[in-house]
TrEMBL record, chains A, B:
Protein's job: Catalyzes the phosphorylation of D-fructose 6-phosphate, the first committing step of glycolysis. Uses inorganic phosphate (PPi) as phosphoryl donor instead of ATP like common ATP-dependent phosphofructokinases (ATP-PFKs), which renders the reaction reversible, and can thus function both in glycolysis and gluconeogenesis. Consistently, PPi-PFK can replace the enzymes of both the forward (ATP-PFK) and reverse (fructose-bisphosphatase (FBPase)) reactions.
Localization of this protein: Cytoplasm
Family designation: Belongs to the phosphofructokinase type A (PFKA) family. PPi-dependent PFK group II subfamily. Clade 'B2' sub-subfamily.
Active-site residue numbers: D140 (proton acceptor)
Name recorded for this polypeptide: Pyrophosphate--fructose 6-phosphate 1-phosphotransferase
Domain named Phosphofructokinase: residues: 7-324
Subunit structure, interactors included: Homodimer.
Annotated site residue numbers, Important for catalytic activity and substrate specificity: D111
Domain of life: Bacteria
Keyword presence, Phosphoprotein: no
EC code: 2.7.1.90
Protein residues bound to diphosphate: G15
Amino acid sequence: MGKLEGNVLIAQGGGPTAVINQSIVGVALEARKFPQVHRVYGARHGVEGILNEDFLDMTQETTNNLELVGKTPSSALGSTRMKPTEDQCRQMFKVLRAHDIRYFFFVGGNDSADGCRIVNDEAKKCGYELRCIHVPKTIDNDLPGNDHTPGFGSAGRFVASAFAGANLDNRALSGVYIGVVMGRHAGFLTAMASLAKKYPDDGPHLIYLPERTFDPEKFAKDVKAVHDKYGRCVIAVSEGIHDESGVPMVTKLMDSIEKDDHGNVQLSGTGALGDLLSAIVKEKTGIKRVRSDTFGYIQRSFIGCVSDIDQNEAREVGEKAVHFALWHDLDGSVAITRTGNYSVDYSLQPFENVAAQTRTMEDEFINAEGNNVTDAFLTYARPLVGSGFPRPHRIRAPKVAKILGWGDE
Amino acid sequence: MGKLEGNVLIAQGGGPTAVINQSIVGVALEARKFPQVHRVYGARHGVEGILNEDFLDMTQETTNNLELVGKTPSSALGSTRMKPTEDQCRQMFKVLRAHDIRYFFFVGGNDSADGCRIVNDEAKKCGYELRCIHVPKTIDNDLPGNDHTPGFGSAGRFVASAFAGANLDNRALSGVYIGVVMGRHAGFLTAMASLAKKYPDDGPHLIYLPERTFDPEKFAKDVKAVHDKYGRCVIAVSEGIHDESGVPMVTKLMDSIEKDDHGNVQLSGTGALGDLLSAIVKEKTGIKRVRSDTFGYIQRSFIGCVSDIDQNEAREVGEKAVHFALWHDLDGSVAITRTGNYSVDYSLQPFENVAAQTRTMEDEFINAEGNNVTDAFLTYARPLVGSGFPRPHRIRAPKVAKILGWGDE
């Protein structure tokens, strides 16, 4: 065991997830088991809190309440959108030193991993012994070196549940339904909509991802083909879809629609992309009933829609982070590896593997046409949404013979 | 017991709910216990299915599968947006007679109640003995004569869960959040957002309902006041908010914004109202981070977010409908009465009390300022979202004393 004595600091960066508090609680409860740890601090609002020494003494919190906080979505310590500059990372280090922080755990995405890297380098330069561990989280599942990341499974469960319901709604009142899902560069979260399918004719029938170029003409053709076949169509679209040159569709479509003299469209509109795609479908297919929803912020913090698998893993990455730092004297980024169907284990990878890197969907997960996912993705994704995922059921009763037959006149 | 022998027909009208199938299954399983019932038919896609004799023989379905269907959101028989004309109601009657339907159960809102009324009158005129029962359902809770309606509790649970999460998200990353909820004339569903509050500073901090005139100036003042106090603001808005002359805000604001030369806005935009209100807040308060979500279709069909109370009551209105018709030879609309905190009982009211009538929120449920609900509403609403409603928890750890105090420089 490492003998390095001092305090522990936990901070969070980036957007909240449904299970991020499990990681914070995992670190806090596990760290207190080590005699060389004096106090466990939590930084309020991430980097801002570190720069302002805005710390809570988590050592003076009950285990019961920490367990309850662990089950609460969105960061209980607060977060920030501020990305620390190299300079600020050096300042952060000064604060850590002042508070005798010897173990620093930063829960976040690739920017947080980069922050860890810089703080760690700075400590080495100054000969200040400090253990730095990056604890992964993101709903986008875009961190390299991980089978998947904590937060993704629960957000995916929300997306799959929303599409399962939207498919039932669309089946009862037919038409075209478009659901716009978060994910600018990685389509993983949008792809989770595929888990909503149970019966062969269930939606989502089409899935458009930022890993592929989006072609409005092809899109309209795809929708018409599905609508001709089933009399309805449910579509999952990533907010990040773009043209061949990488221009986001939401921008592109505005222009084309202006040129078509359909009038300007408010760019800031959170519903803009969904509305524009609806306009395309109506215009190019003549289908009248077209509806779109933009899942927006609900999908990352909706209370009560959590994957138990995700929750357990978020807790474990926090606990393992402590083990790597305190048992093994290591620095780095905790990574999840899949060891079975379904089981995982945890390792530590160099910050560089994660820092400022972005993972996108592997080709094997996207179909040849680029408008849906493959069975390989379904196999990969299914365990992550956890147990008790609700399943729809249909009436199988036979038809009754007509007597008047007006409909056939 | 009534001796009237023949077949049973179940149909559904209007928008789906999360528990509507419980009512259909309640009718189907209960009706089969009566010897005078030969067959139980289900009409596909409501009125359309009746006019086309598109019936399923529910008598040839297993109890197990019906129970599973009952737990599935959105109408398993399919629905329609078609509102039957008086003429079509007479045609519907002809179909019922052709199929020896003697018991007609129509699950829906006030239009369906009106349909029942006309079919029933027609049957009387023709001296054809027919029992007609309207079974209530709506997510808007806008049916007179009912304490509340099946479907409302589950939709309300979704809205409350979404705002509970949005409040946590907004607390972690501060700013202004606007959630737009369904409900053109009745604000009940929007008001359910109030159940998300746990701590005194929790959102939603402001709730705007169609029962009150919406004033953009007052709205901006309200938001600024909350933001000045808490550094953040969470707002629930009904899609139906309007000015003193009843013009919907979404229309009104477009104009004003055009006049302000902010450029045109696509009226069809599902996100339009949220975007427009965001623009107002930014413009009139100077607050930078303003976000809006439009809950759209997710709120009425999201799978896995169901109130157990709502589910049980939806089942019971179906069973009671059969009792009224088959034990007591009555026609009318089933109504839910609250008999305790919390318990309900069921009665039958004349179609006229419900048909084409709309209930809006009672004054005692809305605060004097018209920007929130009262404790009376919280007491009324709490039982309806059911058991196991998730509750957020906060870290209560004390602050750590600053050492460098840069923030205070």
